[in-house]
Structure formats: C-alpha cells, structure tokens
Amino acid sequence: MSDNRLVIHILSDSVGETGEQTAKAAVSQFGENHNDFEIKRHPYVTEKEHISSILNEAREENSLIVYTIVVDELKNFLDDEAKKYGIQTVDLMTPLVDSISQLTNLIPKKEAGIIRKLDEQYFKRVAAVEFAVKYDDGKDTRGIKKADIILLGISRTSKTPLSMFLAHRYLKVANVPLVPEMPPPDELFEIDPKKIIGLTTNPIKLNEVRQERLKSLGLSDSADYASIDRILKEIEYAENLMNRIGCPIIDVSNKAVEETASIISELLDLNYNDY
Question: Which of 117, 169, 175, 208 is the Cys-Cys partner for 159 at CB 3.0 to 4.6 Å?
Fold first, then answer.
C-alpha cells in the first residue's frame, strides 16, 4: 500500500451506506490501484463536535471528505472547517436534492436521518402484518396479551381484513372468533377491555354474506351456518359476551373496512401518524 494512500472519510447523518457505496464505486474506476485507498465510514454525524473530531483525524492524512448530511448548519460548518485545513469535500446529496426541488417545486425537509426513520416504519409495518397473520382467527390466544387491539366477532364480520388494514397502520392486532359452543379465551378477561373492540352486524346482511360464502365453496346455502336462527343465536351470544367484557361494539353491516378502522381510531384515541 502506498504511503500516500487517500483516506476517504464518509460522513452521514444516517448509517452512511449510500456514501460508502458511492465511494467504493468511484475507487473501483482506478483498477488495480484500489489498495491506494482507504474508506472510513462515520455514521450518525449530527453534532458539530463530532465533525470537528473527524476533521482533526483527517487533517493528519491525505484525505477526502464525502458526506450525505442534509442539515444546512452542519453542512456549512463542515465545509468551512474542512477548508481551513485544506481538505476537499464532496457533497453527494445537495445537487440531487436541489435538482428535484427545482423540477417539482417541492421543498425538501432537510431532516437528518429521515431515510432511517422510513426504514424503521417499513419494518414496523412488516412486524405488525406478521403479527396479524400469526394471531388471526384465534389460532394462538397468547397474542391477545401482546396485541395493541383485539377484535371480537362471529364469522364474517370482517375481522381478518380489518386486522390487516390496521396492521398496515403499524398496529398489532389479534382477532378472536366467537362461537356459542366454544368458551371464550381466558385472556380476554385478563387485559384492559379498552383494547378490545366488538364487531357485530345486521342478521339479514350476514345471512346473505354467509350464503354467498357457502356457494363459493360449492356447498348448499341452506346449511345451518347461514340460517337466520343460527345467526341470531350467534349475534346474541357475541353481544352478551361483549357487554360482559365492557368493550365498545361496532356494527359493520354497511361499513367499509376503512370506515370501521377510522371509528376504532377515534374510540381508542389513536393517531395513525404516531405509528
């Protein structure tokens, strides 16, 4: 390795992966001379003191500063201090951000680490969706104590689609089917009833929905599952249980999933933007 190797310092207000990959791509253009370069990544640079510390190191080397910092105050400080030491800087973000702004007339946020926050939101949504799948339809009642929201209802009251819709709002939802012949999970009586939402529906509407469901499965629509007497029995059982628990009850008869989700948000004083 050359004694005069170039040390490329990557400064980022996030993880610094973009700057590092760009530097590696640039270095690769120099073929077999790549050993004459060293790349040092400095993530989460959000304070002037941190910048000063890096520049004190860089001034002792043959160095180049490459940065993806977007906060103007930090960028200006970095450029000014680097100039004092005769260190060249390369701003990877500003030219691209400025061009996008000019072409769209949009104003950039210039918020540090925003891409990391977006990544965190993505993984939080994935975790919520996986939770909804794992604890769908009462498959594992242990999810009741782990959930942000628990949905109760008889068959075909939109429990699963509502669970998935709320999961995409970063909420962990478990749903529990209610059947007169099956005792409710003990966990329902061991948690705060404010986390529980009961779902009910119009029996005539449910009769139509269940008949269509049976037809789609190639079964007779005269089965007990779709009979009015059976449906009335289930609704009475479910609403009695919900009243016993003390949870709010939403009639989903003529509501879209989005509308029911909005009602739940109001009932539980949720703000999707907080998730």
Answer: 175
CA pair distance 100, 93, nearest whole angstrom: 11
Tokens of 27: 């270095």
The pTM assigned to this predicted structure is: 0.62
- pLDDT tens digits along 4-34: 789 999 999 988 888 999 999 999 998 777 6
Structure tokens at 233: 């029995």
Q: Is 36 left (phi over 0), alpha (psi -120 to 50) or beta?
A: alpha
User: What does residue 181 show for φ and ψ, rounded to 5 degrees?
Assistant: -80, -5
CB 170 within 8 A of CB 275: yes
CB 19 within 8 A of CB 10: yes
